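job 3f2a | input accepted
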Amino acid sequence: MSQTLSTSVIAPRTGRWLAVAAVVTSMAVLGGCANRSASSSVYSYDQAQREQIVRNGTVTSVRPITIEEDKSSGVGMIAGGALGGVAGNAIGGGTGRAIATVGGAILGALAGNAVENRASRASGLEITVRLDNGETRVVAQEADTPFSVGQRVQVISGAGPTRVAPY
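job 3f2a | predicted structure (167 res):
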């Protein structure tokens, strides 16, 4: 009888933890799909079919930079905390299990947040352009297009971010 009782008490808890882990994992996957882009080749739907100003110039310097999100979405921390809690809950029994669950959740949240912060970084370039009218402009964007000093470029601005594009 006690065998049946303990199995029936443990099964709902395990099922709940698995359901929470599945929901959190789904959120993490969906959150990862919502990446913003600092590429000169990516336009949002609202930026498409809008007139933009084009100025011609010459690249005077190019410097590698790192582009990162201003804020964390929290998905990595939540997912890591949930998974860490589930892993900690599988350790020990009684009070030790509770401590392991809390510790696993805290360590998992820290690790998940670190992974999310690392994943939200992109390599970029700070491109300084001397426009044909004598003005100088500096634009930071993803390093998806190579630029070199002396290269002729277009500086495109208007409805949205300013971009540097080769001729």
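job 3f2a | Confidence is low (pLDDT under 50) at residues 30-34.
job 3f2a | closed
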